[in-house]
Each structure stands twice: as structure tokens, then as C-alpha cells.
Amino acid sequence: MTSRRSLSILVLIWSVVGIAALVGGWLAVADRLPDPLAVHWSGISPDGSMSQIGWLAVVLGLLVAGTAVACGALATTPDWGYRSTRRAFLAGLLAWGGSAVGLQATVLIANLDVTDWQDARTSLIALPLILVPSAVGFAAGWLLAGNADKPRQTAELPTITLGSGDRAAWATRVSARWATYSFIGVAVLTVVTAALAAAGFGQVPWITPVALALVSVAGITMTSVSISIGARGVTVRFGVIGWPVWRIKLSDIAGASVEDRQALEVGGWGLRVTPYGTALMLRSGECLVIERRGKKNVFLSVDDAASAAALLNALVERDSAAVES
């Protein structure tokens, strides 16, 4: 299962099976459920309710959201030949579906044969009902990724020699449409929820637009990044205003190379910290790999990464020679 087509078919099957499980489970016990349903508990006592149709729409919305994310990943990831990419995609997809089904089962079981939602009680099985299907989905996705892996290709770097008095620099700017669209979407939701809260719509507390506003501010930093390399090392500036700033000192760098990396391999799009290293991925493909002394590698998705790596290696070599002399 290494092609975009086979993965797309799997997403379609996953969506259909998930919808059938959610709707079928509800239809099977709908006549034994109160309306509205208890959907939130404080301890074992319910403190929130929702109509049966409203709750069904919520869990189906979770499934649709997972499908949308999966379709976005399929559209933006050009190469599925690497096993780690497929594992991240499939394990996340199936775990998400398992969580949605488990959440549906938790609410239905708690409300089963109850005449009034205020009498619904949750129990210790609620958490396992969510976690177990999610864990099973994660394991299944991990195994479905297969064993075959595409050999990783590394680019041949040009040779750059710098004298003690030579000055050289490299700079680029990378923009991400997905981050821009996400920022706009969250900003619109922030305005809408703030308007509803201001109008006294009781089901929208002020914490919702405040949280969305914080997410929006954080998201704008990922719409674009500026990366520069010079005698002091690597500087990464985030967003349209160039802040915050992330600096990697030249003395902390052991070398640089170029690798082809998919965003899902390193944890997804944006800034990610994983056991494999720290990655700033605004797209999949060519990446500048910075090997740091005593620390995890850094992956930066940039164009013309070979020139950046060659210059960085030359700067590191000159710096090391100066220290030794």
C-alpha cells in the first residue's frame, strides 16, 4: 500500500465503514435512549445534554474532520514510498476513527434504557471504551504500512571553499498556503464565536473565542518563515513580522546535508519536535538537515537546500580550522 491511489481507496473505505458504524450503532438502540442524551459528566453525574440528532452530527463531524485532514495529507504529500510516512498516516487515521466510534459507544451505553438524561451515569469503562478502539486502530495502521521501503536519496553537495576573510551568506523565504488558509479559517471562527458570546448565546462561553484567538495568533507564525545562513550560524524568523526568532549557533553545528523528507515522517506540518529531531516543515520534499553537536538534528524544508548545506559546511569547516589554529 504505497501509492496515493491505494491510500485514497483506504480513506474512502474508512469513511464509509466509520459512518456505517456510527449511524448503525445509533439506529440499533435509538428507541432505548432518552432525547436529549447526556453527553458530558462531572464525576459520574451528567451536567450536559444534547439531542440525539445533534450528538450524531457531532460524532459524524469528527469523522468528517478526520477525512478532510486525510485528504489534505494525500493532496500535499507527493511521495508515499517511505514506510515512516505511511505509518504516520495510517496509524493516525485509524486511531482517529477508533476514537470516534469509542466516544459514540461511551455515550450510548451510558444513556441506554434511561428515561431522563439526568439519570444517565458514566462508569469506569468509559475511558477504555475510547482508548482501546483508538489503540487498536493505531496498531492496525502501523501494520498496514507494510515492510517495503524506498531507498532514501541524498543530494550531492557543491564544493565551497572560504578563506579566513571571505564573507558569504544564504537566505530564502518559504510560504505555506495551508497555514494561511488555516489561519484565515480560525480567525473567522474567532470572530463568529466572539459575536455569539457577546450576544449572550449561552452555549458559546467566552473561553471559546479566547482560545481560538490564541490559536490564530500562533498559526500566523507558520504562514511563512525566513531562513538565513551566515558566519554566526542559522537564523529562522517566523511569520510576516519575523518574530519569534530561532537561532542555531555555528559552534553548535557539526555539519549539514540534504534529504528528501515527507512532512508525515517528522510529525506533520509546521514546527514539530519528535524523537527523530526538530522539524520545520511547510511542505514535503527537499530539506536542509542540520546535524547539531550533542543535540537532535534539525530539518528545514527549503528550496535550494544543497547550496545552503554546502555553505553551512564550509562555514563550519572554516570555524573549526580557526579554533584548531
TrEMBL record:
<feature type="transmembrane region" description="Helical">
    <location>
        <begin position="124"/>
        <end position="145"/>
    </location>
</feature>
<keyword id="KW-0812">Transmembrane</keyword>
<feature type="transmembrane region" description="Helical">
    <location>
        <begin position="54"/>
        <end position="76"/>
    </location>
</feature>
<keyword id="KW-0472">Membrane</keyword>
<keyword id="KW-1133">Transmembrane helix</keyword>
<feature type="transmembrane region" description="Helical">
    <location>
        <begin position="88"/>
        <end position="112"/>
    </location>
</feature>
<feature type="transmembrane region" description="Helical">
    <location>
        <begin position="206"/>
        <end position="229"/>
    </location>
</feature>
<feature type="transmembrane region" description="Helical">
    <location>
        <begin position="178"/>
        <end position="200"/>
    </location>
</feature>
<protein>
    <recommendedName>
        <fullName>DUF1648 domain-containing protein</fullName>
    </recommendedName>
</protein>
